[in-house]
Amino acid sequence: MKKYIFIIILTTIFNLNAQNQLPYYEIPTMEENYTAQTTVARIIDGLGFRYYWASEGLTEKDLEYQPAGKGRTSLKTIEHIYDLSATMLRLTNTDFKQAKEKEQMSFFEMRTQTLLNIEALRNKILATKDLSELSVKKDGEVSIPFFYIINGPIADAIWHTGQISSFRRSSGNPINPKVNHFSGTVRK
């Protein structure tokens, strides 16, 4: 009996450690220092936290879910969020290597890479002295202002993360009720 309890405890510890290796299990703590960079970074943190929990523990049934049999499945929506995260990196010239080509990734690999991409974008934003430096320039002229990156792929990723949350609820697997989206924490 003691042997089984020991194995259960080890398995639980292993699962908790594996879970905490990915960014955004909880929103990182940050000083209350309001700058353009910390504000946008916090928006990115909100996306990362919501995406972590929207995509945590999805089953094959959840991934195949398609509302009313139309539109994207949950898996296709997750692929789209990955594409948006890669677009954010490209548009902000964030040098962050992708582990594999998208076509070679499993759901779990894509989820991990998306979370790592979001974290890399956050770090780039915090390291930038002036957010206008992140505007896309062509021939020395701004062709895509950083504002468009916020209301484009960042907002779109937040929107689609909400869809994943809704889809999983509809397929019978709602988000962990201990998640607090307001504080970015998880009740123990």
Description of the molecule:
With 188 residues, the chain is mainly alpha-helical. It has a single domain, classed as Four Helix Bundle (Hemerythrin (Met), subunit A), CATH 1.20.120. Strands 1-2 form a two-stranded antiparallel sheet. The protein has a two-stranded antiparallel sheet with strand order 3-4. Helix 2 runs antiparallel to helix 5, helix 4 packs parallel to helix 5 and helix 4 runs antiparallel to helix 6. The chain is globular, with a radius of gyration of 18 Å. About 9% of the residues have low confidence.
Hey, roughly how much beta strand do the residues contain?
5-15%
CATH architecture: Up-down Bundle
Separation of the first and last Cα atoms: 27 Å
Biggest sheet features: 2 strands, antiparallel
| Average residue pLDDT | 90
Supply Rg: 18 Å
Structural class, judged by helices and strands? mainly alpha
Give me the side-by-side strand order of the main sheet: 1-2
CATH third-level topology: Four Helix Bundle (Hemerythrin (Met), subunit A)
Compute the number of helices.
6
Gross morphology is globular
Essential attributes:
single chain, 188 residues, mainly alpha, Four Helix Bundle (Hemerythrin (Met), subunit A), two-stranded antiparallel ribbon, two-stranded antiparallel sheet, 6 helices, 4 strands
Brief account:
With 188 residues, the chain is mostly helical. The chain is 57% helix and 6% strand. It has one domain (2-186): Four Helix Bundle (Hemerythrin (Met), subunit A), CATH 1.20.120.
